[in-house]
Amino acid sequence: MFQQFLDGLGDLKNKPVALKQVKKILKIEEKSLPKNISNYFVEFTKHTSHKWQRKDKMIFIWTTLKHLEKQGRTDLKPNDDDWIALSEILGAPPELLNSKWIGMLKTDLKQSPWTIEEDELLNKVMTQKFISWTHVALEYNRISPIMRHAKQVRERWNNYLDPELNKCPWSEQEQIQLLQLVQKYGKKWSVISKQIKGRTENQVKNAYNSLINSYRRNHIQSLDSDEIIISKLLTKLDPPLQQANASTPMIQAIPTLQQQFIMQALLIERLKGMAFFAQFPGFMATQQQQI
User: Fold this and answer.
1) Where in the numbering of this chain does the SANT domain appear (predicted)?
2) N or C: which terminus of the chain has fewer CB atoms within 10 Å of its end residue's CB?
3) String of b and e for 80-92 (b: at least 16 CB within 10 Å)?
4) Residues 55 and 43 sit within 8 Å (Cβ to Cβ)
């Protein structure tokens, strides 16, 4: 299919790409695109479902630009039909091509705050069922004037718009549950957030850091590790836990070798003293009364 596409380009095949204009939109550093594009395509087919290399991106950009140029378009804004056509030409899923294109856009979308209109569009899109966030982003970008990455769409929904999101202050019980889960899983926020209803990864991480930092501010001279702080906070937050710990028999620590020598020396001194006083009348009788 790719060869048919090349044959159908005619004179456009050898016409240089206006990279100066393209660089205003896409994040590319190359000063020129490959001339013998056919050789690049052989390697491109090996990476369509893996991490793309530099050559993969170059042939993708070249093919997309030539596809739009063939239609007399200069807007450099491929639509759904374009991705379907390019999918047939390049042999890669249209969702993948769309996602890669968005990822190369020069506009730093992360610096562009979400608007009320965008939130409304995303809410509308999420009334449908999708198999992945890539598909959600595709549908969103189809109707939105501002393009967003799939990751941005996912984080906007999960952290702000999801109606099941709990935005209330953390209850004491939630704090206890959070600390216990950190003891169990460590700082695996994605795992923990799934076990605390209505709380996102960011909420879980921020709540934990708030608890730990608050303790450190109130105990400036403390060098306690996070693990020790968690135990102390749980004891403070959960009285039953404190009672359970109090009722648990204490295991006495085994004295060190140095401590054992000191104890033996004190015992010997005590026995020497007893031997000295034993020669005086009434000493043994006093000791027997104490026993």
Assistant:
1) 165-216
2) C
3) eebbebbbebbeb
4) yes
Helical ranges in the chain per DSSP H: 2-9, 19-22, 37-44, 54-70, 80-90, 94-104, 116-125, 133-143, 150-156, 172-185, 189-193, 201-218, 226-237, 239-247, 257-277, 283-290
21 near 39, Cβ under 8 Å? Answer: no
Q: Which two tokens stand for residue 246?
A: 């109090």
The model's pLDDT over 234-277, given as tens digits with 9 standing for 90+, comes to 887 765 544 444 443 433 444 555 555 556 666 666 666 555 54
Quick check: pTM over 0.85?
no
Tokens found for residue 217:
């501010």
Q: How many CA atoms lie within 13 A of 97 on its CB side?
A: 27
DSSP letter for 144, please: -
Q: Which of 161, 179, 195 lies closest to 230 in space, CA to CA?
A: 179
Each residue of 187-243: pLDDT tens digit? 999 899 989 989 988 899 999 999 988 888 888 777 888 888 888 888 877 655 444
Instruction: Compute the distance between CA of residue 40 and CA of residue 58 in angstroms, rounded to an integer.
Output: 9
d(CA 258, CA 288): 32
**C-alpha distances in Å from residue 276, one per residue of 22, 87, 230, 273:** 103, 103, 55, 5
Alpha carbon distance 150, 156 (integer Å)? 10
Residue with tokens 């050789």, as numbered in its chain: 39
The two structure tokens encoding residue 206: 């921020």
CA separation (Å) from 4 to 38, 44, 90, 183, 231?
11, 17, 11, 60, 68
- For residue 79, the SS3 value is coil
